[in-house]
Design brief:
Layout: H1 3-26, E1 53-55, H2 64-69, H3 80-89, E2 94-95, E3 103-105, H4 125-139, H5 142-146, E4 151-154, H6 167-173, E5 183-186, E6 201-202, H7 209-214, E7 225-230, H8 249-257, E8 263-266, H9 273-278, E9 280-286, H10 295-301, E10 305-309, H11 323-326, E11 328-329, H12 338-343, H13 347-358, H14 360-365, H15 377-387, H16 411-414
Parallel strand pairs: 1-2, 1-3, 3-4, 4-5, 5-6, 7-8, 7-9, 9-10, 10-11
The structure holds 2-acetamido-2-deoxy-beta-D-glucopyranose (2 copies).
Amino acid sequence: MEIWKLGLFLVAVISFSGVRIDAKRMSQPHPTERISGSAGDVLDDNPVGRLKVFVYELPSKYNKKILQKDPRCLTHMFAAEIFMHRFLLASPVRTLNPEEADWFYTPVYSTCDLTPNGLPLPFKSPRMMRSAVQLISSNWPYWNRTEGADHFFVVPHDFGACFHYQEEKAIERGILPLLQRATLVQTFGQRNHVCLKEGAITIPPYAPPQKMQAHLIPPDTPRSIFVYFRGLFYDVGNDPEGGYYARGARAAVWENFKDNPLFDISTEHPTTYYEDMQRAVFCLCPLGWAPWSPRLVEAVIFGCIPVIIADDIVLPFADAIPWEEIGLFVVEKDVPNLDTILTSIPPEVILRKQRLLANPSVKQAMLFPTPAQPGDAFHQILNGLARKLPHNQNVFLKPGEKVLNWTAGPVGDLKPW
Ligand SMILES: *[C@@H]1O[C@H](CO)[C@@H](O)[C@H](O)[C@H]1NC(C)=O
Ligand SMILES: *[C@@H]1O[C@H](CO)[C@@H](O)[C@H](O)[C@H]1NC(C)=O
């Protein structure tokens, strides 16, 4: 170990243990100071009474049958599409009368086609979506009124409704033509990207609430790890030349800091992964193939300051959650300076972010719990939909007017599903 690194490490540990003591002292209620991190910093709306959602009833081959075939879809990071469906069926915002609906929801499980290894392949999703839209547009009058502008779809793939896991291909495809007027509820978020349509709602990926709960350790456990990361640095199989995967940012983390004692980073996924995050000050959340990953949710739940390395990322519920205050944003080209950046953060800033992270309403907003809870991710989605009301009158088409092109897109997508 080089001397300077040892020095840094000690500084970090000392200032960090100082932080902990302060944290205890400062958690006492203070009569005048408004402690940021108290509930209220997360936009705390109740959507009930502000919107009505009609849930189309589709043949089970679009949803339940697919899940029966592969129950792993209930626990993977794309599971929000299933839980959102279940939630809406029992939600007080659901209406059985489509005439009074503000929003129409089509329950299609487009990410539940898994390889034996559990990877969701989106290749059939466009055909499946197209088939579902065909069905609702011929069986109900509501799609044709707006061609989907008052409809929303949950599309939690890597690149949302672009339906490809590789960015180049996703960009080439663009958003499925039939969904170009709909509101897309998706995990993918990156500014100025063809796969993020204006008005889309960016949501957190699904991370299993009970499983995370089961790994909680006492909240006063010292955070003795300075920087933590587990995951791939290279994806040699899909990116043999390097530099394309994670736009090189993960490789830069590894190459610069693999021997730095402040950085606990590795490709090995230990059984103590969740516990380790609770022992860490900073958790790296770099982009992978897509800018988002479940690490953001895990970091928030485990009170580890997310270090977001994904230029132009749009974070979940960005209008409701003060991400700039909670997390830390490091631009991809600055990864080689990550050690200096992180060790220069004043302890009081770390403390404030940790307090914000301790706010249960931030954590709640990241989760899709069963049963649903006030302020959880389901409610944040409904809030996002409610904020888009009333619909602009120009979304309603004149009788017989058509805007969408039903034959646009790759020919393969036009085949029946
Ligand atoms: C909606 O429009 C399509 C043609 O674009 C038509 O085939 C279909 O019958 C219409 N749906 C209804 C319910 O009228
Ligand atoms: C619809 O898209 C197809 C395929 O790109 C194109 O050939 C056709 O001209 C388009 N139709 C209209 C009306 O724009």
